[in-house]
Amino acid sequence: MTVTSLPTTGLSIDPWDPGYGAAVSAEALSEIDARSSAELDLDRESPAEQWRPLSPADGAAAPEVLLVADGVRRIDARVWVHDHEAAMSAPGIAASYAAGVVRCTPGGPATLAAADVRRAVFSPSPATPTVHTPHGSYPARVTADATMEQLSLALQQQLTELEIALATACRADHDGQDLLLVDGPLRGRSHLPRTIGYIKTHHTAYLPPPQAAVVTALRPGQRTPVFLMGTSWRRHAWYLRLPGTHTTHWSGIARCEAGADLTITEVTALADATALVLPTLAGVDYKDPRAPQNLVPIGGLEKHLRHRLGDPRLLYRALRSAAT
């Protein structure tokens, strides 16, 4: 996909396919009064007034092994669980989810290290049954309530637990020389050592205008200074620009997250490592509609995992048949 710019009108075209929304939302670029209420410590690596684009420090090293973990999820059917003894019915979802890990080494091919598919029925009813179909079983998972938010949260928690289990197993033999990158926020995984959360879509403007201007000034392979941010949870963060065709200020910008308990020396080493290795994995627009932020290993893993989920029409028919 070619990115076009129309300088005579001051218009530029967002590089992402419109079916995926935009890499940065309009709300994230609104005025300071509408910005996030997150607590920020902008002086973590350098004083806020001295922020500037940073290149990896002399002596910074890329990891010997980069593990990329990701997961996909899909609702196969909406269900109702009927508790005849209690004369009550509760809504729920039957869902499939899959997680996997890709192993990347410098100069070598990326290889699939692990992948697994799970299914489940989520509902708040204690009477929720395990559903057996010819194409797989859906164990019962009881949720806090029947809202779609809670059903989705329960599904996401199961997916996160599967990602953690696979990643932990894959890195057991690397003797501390690996870096684990998880697609999405680090929440729920910040206890894992040498682990980075990778966020490619920006819904919230966290930085004040002077520091946000440093983000848009980044060149490929450069990052912002590390800062500490706190919302409902605390973590270190920094922005990084990936190589690609950029005609909008936030094109190619990703945000990385690391644990709040790391020392500044530890977190800046991780930040420099991402600036060294992630630009080499940037997606390309003629292959991926979310390039460059959708890294090549992530795009390939997502495609593989979605295939592993199975045919949604076949599973839907199987669930209907099992229900009758």
TrEMBL record:
Q: Which InterPro entries match?
A: RNaseH-like_sf
Q: Which SUPFAM superfamilies match?
A: Ribonuclease H-like (SSF53098)
| Residue stretches of biased makeup (Basic and acidic residues) | 36-47
What is the top-level taxon of the source organism? Bacteria
> Which stretches of sequence are listed as region Disordered?
36-56
Q: What is the official name of this protein in its record?
A: NurA domain-containing protein
Q: What is the organism lineage in this UniProt record?
A: Bacteria, Bacillati, Actinomycetota, Actinomycetes, Streptosporangiales
